[in-house]
Amino acid sequence: MRFLLVRIFNAMNNLNENILDKTLLFIANRSWLKNGNDFLKSLCRFLGEELNVDYVMIDKYSEDCPLTAETVALFHKKNFLPNMVYKLQGTPCENVIGSSLCSYEKNVQFLFPQDVLLKEMEVQSYIGIPLWSSTGLPIGLLALMDNVAFANAIVLKRILQIVAIKTASELENILFENELKIKNKTLSLHKKDLLQANEQLHELTENLKKQNKRLEKAKNIAQDSEDRYRMLFNSINDAIFVSEKGEGNKVGKFIQVNAVACKRLGYTQEELLNLSPNDINSQLSRETLPALIKTLMENKSAIIEVEHVRKDGRVFPVEISSQMVNYQGKTIFQSIARDISERKRSELELVKAKKEAEDNEAKYRNWFLLFPHATFIWKKIDDDFEMVMANKMAYEDSDNNIEKIFGIKSRILWKDEPDL
Fold this sequence. Notes:
- By secondary structure, the protein is α+β, with helices and mostly antiparallel strands.
- It is built from 14 helices and 14 strands.
- A hairpin with a 2-residue loop joins strand 2 and strand 3 (79-80).
- Helix 6 packs antiparallel against helix 7.
């Protein structure tokens, strides 16, 4: 009897190790998936089928809406259920998000009588682990649920701990991409406003040309037009600068600026009218100014990104949309400057997020390579397996001769298929 119990115990240990190995292999083999949603769904299916549990759930959470959570993947017996938003109060998920791993191996409905979903889903056992962002904020959870008591809760906890970091990284990427799409949509609306402002300014300029030709005969009409021009000029949300062309490819002093330009740069209107574009541009931007003037002279319009310097020395990026016009025999440059600091910050955040994702990927790969036991990765080809990768310990165990069996089929090494 004792011998039989030992054999059963060893068999269970081998089964548990087999599941852990499969989990590590799954993560390694799914690292190439570029779409985070594809990875999360693939993970749910893998856990549901390999661990033989009724439900696998991945939720997203935001501190902006602390009372609810929303599923991004909900796997149930070989199928994905529609995503849903649910209230956290009175649920086991409430104890997981922003906290630590929670395990309720049986009678979970009795422990959480207010959770209606547990009854509808006939759930009797629950294990959940929180998901954290790279900055330490709670962003969701990963949970396993079954309609019977968990018999191997220790193994299930280890599995969740193994996949939690990769799951959190993919979920954070999804949340960041969604937020970036919203910001890009906002930026597109701002660009549309800029185009409309350019059209309005161009239309106004044409009106002024016509009014100037009839100045002596219709001073009142010209004055009305000037009043309308100034009202629109100062009501636009972007900074507007008007300056004369200087000698060669130089620009003279400003001859007109709007209230936004004064406020944004920290100067009074009188101070700005004594300055030129060189005085408000950074050193780097000054070097690009001659090329901009040349483009304006050739094409009558240009769009360029430069850096403006406030009176207090602070630098901020702007997008300049300039047009060249002739006014009373003079060459005039009209420029609209839009502050693009937020857009630049969004671009930097995207680069940072991508770098963090790459670093996380490198950590997983290093973990595999430095795993303290010889570990192999096999690729299934038709009805056989072929060795494609091994870690550092595998090289040492084989006296660095492991290259001799790379690409070899498993049936040559074993009579039966390897236990992968």
